[in-house]
Amino acid sequence: MASAPDDLSSVAFCWSVPAAEPFPPEHHERPVLVIAAVYAGSVEDGEPIVQPLRELAVPVVDLSGPEPVLVRVGRGDPAALGLAV
Question: Residue 76: is its pLDDT beyond 70?
Answer without folding.
Answer: no
